[in-house]
Write a structure and sequence with these properties.
Layout: H1 15-23, H2 30-40, H3 47-59, E1 61-64, H4 72-83, E2 97-100, H5 105-112, E3 118-122, H6 133-145, E4 150-154, H7 157-161, H8 165-179, E5 183-187, H9 196-208, E6 213-215, H10 227-244, E7 249-251, H11 259-272, E8 285-287, H12 290-303
Parallel strand pairs: 1-2, 1-8, 2-3, 3-4, 4-5, 5-6, 6-7
Length: 315
């Protein structure tokens, strides 16, 4: 099964070759990484640029509901909000996608038909990823058949942390093959990978295996997206494109709740990967509450008044 990166074919020829490649990557300077992320997070932007950033951030959101209590009614309501986030202002951009569990894909697909908003589905035994490969692949097939435009898979962190890197790589390849036309986002659960070096290695495994996006987190653990781990992944996609010509997206998810947070991440994108990634096709926010704050800040810029949370829908 071919990878999307023939320039690195030798790196994935065997378990030992992949291990040599991954451990040959430059080590991460944790202090330097965190200092750069913190420095970029202090950048301020003026009113016009802020208005642009807010609209861009809205257009990059994967509006997400991943709860055991999800119902068809909740998914339809979320889809309506994705298509028309602010009913009082029709100039508000649509979100990029609505992300749901596989059994809710038919409901989301019907509600979003013709809207331009994508249907994303978590799969592969999300969020733990503890299932046999054939079960994971069936999960993906069902979601795609039901109308998912994008699949968000989780890697086997147990395999990764025990050094079975080729198993992780081959599982991503197998999932990618089942996606057909759907784009694949590979979730690392960075909060469980322990070190920045591991996040860099996981990023390269995902990219070598043909991920369309690499994604920080499920949003289901204590540590999710941070400026530092997202910066590290942005460096990885930048370097991968420089080496292969293949562009891959990045999706931080979990814990990004305010407009100020979103702007910090957009600055990271521009200053690290570059303007080519400032597009919903290449950068997403996995979020639910973030949209409400963006809408409130957008209303404030437009009217000069802070409307407060009662003026946006509660998800």
């Amino acid at each position: 099964m071919p990878t999307t990166a023939p320039a690195f074919a030798d790196a994935t020829a065997s378990d030992s070759a992949l291990r040599r490649f991954l451990f040959g990557l430059p080590g991460v300077d944790a202090v330097g990484l965190e200092a750069r992320a913190a420095s970029l997070g202090t950048r301020s932007i003026k009113t016009t640029a802020k208005a642009y950033a807010i609209d861009l951030a809205i257009s990059m959101i994967d509006l997400t509901t991943l709860e055991g209590a999800d119902t068809p009614g909740k998914v339809r309501a979320l889809a309506a909000k994705a298509v028309n986030p602010d009913p009082t202002d029709r100039t508000t951009p649509r979100t990029a996608a609505v992300c749901v569990y596989p059994d809710m894909v038919p409901t989301a697909a019907a509600a979003l038909a013709g809207s331009g908003v994508k249907v994303a589905s978590v799969a592969t035994a999300f969020p733990a990823g503890r299932a046999a490969l054939d079960v994971k692949l069936a999960d993906v097939r069902d979601a795609v058949a039901a109308g998912a435009d994008e699949i968000d898979m989780v890697i086997d962190r147990g395999a990764f942390l025990s050094g079975r890197f080729l198993k992780v790589y081959e599982e991503i390849l197998a999932v990618k093959a089942e996606c057909g036309p759907a784009r694949l986002k590979v979730i690392f659960e960075t909060g469980e990978l322990s070190t920045y070096d591991n996040i860099r290695r996981a990023s390269w495994i995902g990219m070598l295996a043909g991920a369309d996006f690499i994604k920080t987190s499920t949003g289901k653990v204590a540590t999710n997206a941070t400026p530092a781990n997202t910066l590290l992944m942005l460096e990885a996609v930048r370097d991968f494109r420089a080496a292969t010509g293949v562009q891959i997206g990045v999706k931080p998810a979990g814990g990004i709740r305010t407009t100020k947070d979103a702007v910090k991440f957009l600055v990271l994108v521009k200053e690290t990967a570059g303007e080519d990634w400032l597009d919903p096709h290449w950068f997403r926010f996995g979020a639910s509450s973030l949209l409400n704050d963006l809408l409130m800040q957008r209303q404030k810029l437009s009217t000069g008044r802070y409307s407060g949370p009662d003026y946006v829908t509660v998800d």
